[in-house]
């Protein structure tokens, strides 16, 4: 589904004049915030298939949650459903996008341009969701100066200047574990407060900084645990002493 510009956002806003132009601070629970992208992904798929309205039950199935939880989550955003009709897909996409801050453009810097960093830089799905890769940074002189996805890879020594010059709001760390904390400290010192961390290490940050951790090896280990149980693998005895 194509990204909505300011004009499209305004036209949707005018359809429901009671809705504010900016999201209110409703004290939305973190668990609800974590599920909003699931609803948004399901809604985007429905919009692409030409579905105009959706019931809470059908949206819940598409998002992989129960309908009662979905209705409670959406109640934090306001009452956008109609009893007996359901939710207007296009408008709910707008409302969730607005609540998540996706009706504006977020500049992202990727630090660490190895295989993962390159894959992220070349991923075309960020733009339609409100994210623009604005900078690529690496320490390897063999990589610095390369052009990836239309961007010149800049040297790690210039990290702070790059962040300021490109107006970066979010930093993606795709560095080796040994370098992650130092890079984190540097971007925090220059004012970055949102970090997506792919490095296999826990970062130490001030309370004002939000870090989301992505560790594929941990997810694979959890799947391995369940595979072992399904195969009838032995349970380890636990010593209670």
TrEMBL record:
The residues the record assigns to binding NAD(+) are: 112-117
Principal localization reads cytoplasm
The GO annotation for biological process reads: negative regulation of DNA-templated transcription; response to redox state
Q: Where is this region: Disordered?
A: 1-28
Query: GO CC annotations?
Result: cytoplasm
Q: Key word Membrane present in the record? A: no
Query: GO MF annotations for this entry?
Result: DNA binding; DNA-binding transcription factor activity
Residue intervals of the CoA-binding domain: 101-202
Task: Please give the Pfam families that the UniProt record associates with this protein.
Answer: CoA_binding, Put_DNA-bind_N
Instruction: Tell me which residues form the DNA-binding region.
Output: 38-77
Q: Which UniProt keywords apply?
A: Cytoplasm, DNA-binding, NAD, Repressor, Transcription, Transcription regulation
What the entry lists under SMART domains is as follows: CoA_binding
Q: Give the UniProt subcellular location, in the record's own words.
A: Cytoplasm
For this chain, the family text in UniProt reads: Belongs to the transcriptional regulatory Rex family.
Role: Modulates transcription in response to changes in cellular NADH/NAD(+) redox state.
How is this protein organized at the quaternary level?
Homodimer.
Q: Which NCBIfam families match?
A: PRK05472.1-3, PRK05472.2-1, PRK05472.2-2, PRK05472.2-3, PRK05472.2-4, PRK05472.2-5
Protein's recorded name: Redox-sensing transcriptional repressor Rex
Native source organism of the sequence: [Actinomadura] parvosata subsp. kistnae
Upper lineage: Bacteria, Bacillati, Actinomycetota, Actinomycetes, Streptosporangiales
């Amino acid at each position: 589904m194509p990204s909505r510009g300011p004009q499209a956002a305004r036209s949707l806003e005018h359809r429901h004049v009671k809705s504010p132009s900016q999201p209110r601070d409703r004290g939305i629970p973190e668990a609800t915030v974590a599920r909003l992208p699931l609803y948004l992904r399901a809604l985007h798929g429905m919009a692409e298939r030409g579905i105009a309205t959706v019931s809470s039950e059908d949206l819940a199935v598409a998002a992989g949650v129960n309908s009662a939880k979905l209705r409670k989550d959406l109640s934090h955003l306001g009452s956008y459903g109609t009893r007996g009709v359901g939710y207007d897909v296009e408008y709910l996409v707008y409302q969730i996008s607005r609540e998540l801050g996706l009706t504006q453009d977020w500049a992202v810097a990727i630090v660490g341009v190895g295989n993962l960093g390159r894959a992220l830089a070349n991923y075309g799905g960020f733009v339609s969701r409100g994210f623009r890769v604005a900078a690529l940074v690496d320490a390897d002189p063999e990589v610095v100066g390369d052009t990836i996805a239309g961007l010149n890879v800049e040297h790690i020594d210039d990290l702070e200047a790059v962040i300021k010059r490109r107006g970066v709001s979010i930093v993606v760390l795709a560095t080796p574990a040994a370098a992650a904390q130092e890079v984190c400290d540097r971007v925090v010192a220059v004012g970055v407060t949102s970090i997506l961390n792919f490095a296999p290490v826990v970062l130490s940050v001030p309370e004002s900084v939000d870090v989301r951790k992505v560790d594929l090896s941990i997810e694979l280990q959890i799947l391995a645990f369940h595979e072992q149980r399904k195969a009838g693998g032995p349970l380890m005895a636990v010593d209670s002493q």
